[in-house]
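@channel sequence for tomorrow's demo:
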Amino acid sequence: MGASGWDYYVPYQPDRYAAFVALRQEVFESGEFWWAVPGEPGKTARDYPNRPKTEDELWSEESVRLAGTHSILDMYRVLADDEKPNYGWLPFAYETFEEYMALVKEHGNPEYGMIVPISEAEAYAAAGSTKLTPEHVEKITELAQYRGIGRCAILHDADGNPTELYFWGYSGD
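structure tokens (generated this afternoon):
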């Protein structure tokens, strides 16, 4: 199926992790994710009345663990502003398993499933402002460059007040 892009806007709150947890719950309950068990392209879990009733039930299926849900449900952690993401070997190219293992040995495995908040420096470099607005979203989407690692940005109104949190990324097999 390949990786899928996803994005979500939620009302601003200072606790990004609490917003993230509530968003994940909303996505799970709505069924707005790809369910690998039936695995039909173009359908979401919402299309199946027998879909899992809990996340434990969802993730108990090996096919789901391997393919993901192509949604925010594939993420499990939001980094703090002062935490550095472990991208491991991701920026590097490899062609053989031996090359891959050498890169893992040198750089470590990437830490998938994390949400990395946009730093002020990244915001300014991408959009020319540290107070991002909805109009800046198109300029920052490329900052989610690694599959399995999401991003988060605070969006502001015209007066500079925070109004939304924007979560986005790519995940899935």
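heads up for whoever presents: The radius of gyration is 17 Å.
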